[in-house]
What we know:
The chain is α/β, with parallel strands linked by helices. Among the domains are: 4-81, no CATH class; 342-448, no CATH class.
Amino acid sequence: xxxxxxxxxxxxxxxxxxxxxxxxxxxxxxxxxxxxxxxxxxxxxxxxxxxxxxxxxxxxxxxxxxxxxxxxxxxxxxxxxxxxxxxxxxxxxxxxxxxxxxxxxxxxxxxxxxxxxxxxxxxxxxxxxxxxxxxxxxxxxxxxxxxxxxxxxxxxxxxxxxxxxxxxxxxxxxxxxxxxxxxxxxxxxxxxxxxxxxxxxxxxxxxxxxxxxxxxxxxxxxxxxxxxxxxxxxxxxxxxxxxxxxxxxxxxxxxxxxxxxxxxxxxxxxxxxxxxxxxxxxxxxxxxxxxxxxxxxxxxxxxxxxxxxxxxxxxxxxxxxxxxxxxxxxxxxxxxxxxxxxxxxxxxxxxxxxxxxxxxxxxxxxxxxxxxxxxxxxxxxxxxxxxxxxxxxxxxxxxxxxxxxxxxxxxxxxxxxxxxxxxxxxxxxxxxxxxxxxxxxxxxxxxxxxxxxxxxxxxxxxxxxxxxxxxxxxxxxxxxxxxxxxxxxxxxxxxxxxxxxxxxxxxxxxxxxxxxxxxxxxxxxxxxxxxxxxxxxxxxxxxxxxxxxxxxxxxxxxxxxxxxxxxxxxxxxxxxxxxxxxxxxxxxxxxx
Length: 592
């Protein structure tokens, strides 16, 4: 096994020539990693933000594990040149989930909803047209030009090949969802799987009748619930599991009929962590629900004074990060469910052996990818589903052994969408990789300047907010939104009680109480509010998302000490925050 990638990566930093392939061989990846660490490894500086970041031997062993093999030679993936945060920012600048637009299908002329703005030069097809046999991605195939950088050639292909208007597969009556799979009778779900009769949710799965939820699993009749699982008929919960009929809670386990409670297990009929009889509970809750604004404010103030576990998690083993459910060996991971042996992964479900991944599900052996599903041996990819052995792909579906391809379906052995035989493919790709080493492209994710989206349309702006001038200076695009409202109808008062709200509200355009942006309430949504006895929202969906995300800690780890035993911990609570933070054992001993 050659160690060329370790040596070349370090030498390329200093402009030195590449070593001959036969200089070093090793029995396994760990031996190669040890050699590299002993002779060359230091704390590299991020080429974007200049901050130092760590590359461990486990990191190096993983890069070796996912490096592709052609004929008998492994083309080793070099260590990254960007720090973990900048790598995530780069990936997320390729992902627009929630900004949807009206435009026309470029194949049929049909008016459609799309994640690509109408002025975007991409060729965009609607769902039916994209999956039809009226076109084939190999029509856009091109020969690789060794006189030019790879990314420039890929960008040209990316612009020419059709894009699908939304990623919304196998749905039933759920046309207005994006990055979603197998949802039924739902509206404005983003990165959701197997949900039914649900609205305005993201990163949720196998749930029914949920609204304004994030990162929930197996929940039903839930409203404003985040980072929770197996909850029924609940509202305003965070980091809760197996609860029912609970309202306003944090870190509850197996609780029933609890109101404004924290850090409880198997509790019932408690208000503010005080025990009541069933009758006393029901009478007090009825009174408190009439003044929810002050109740929620007091709840948040008291929550900050309660002990916090260093990490919000449910059923985890050997994990660091936050909002982790049913996972093990997950390091620096955030908002994940059912992941194993993963590092720098966020918004993912059922992942194994993955580094530097966002919004990926049911995949294994993945590196530097965003928005993918059910892939194996998958590196440097954007929106690719049910693929194997794909390198530098975007919108590849059910493909195998493809390199630098965009908008392909059911293909094998393609390069820049051009079809090759297996032998031709195996011989040509290593030559392209050698060319990419010379241009400094091999091992790098797609540059942000080639993203089809403007920076402020993407999830990068959610987690790494920039001003327009900052984004443009770094090479990203910026979209100017028309602040003028196209609708100037009569002002509609949104009632504080659902009992006072009639069906006519669904025929009006409402104005967000915070941003002034227009929004609507659809009939099925109104029916949900009536079933849950919830007043209709006075804020638009986007503002509700922003406020929900603000309840979470940042995706960043700090070293600090347990406030009780002094043990060192890694936590998303920064040292200058006022919260009392405990390690796992002290938290369990003091709370449950």
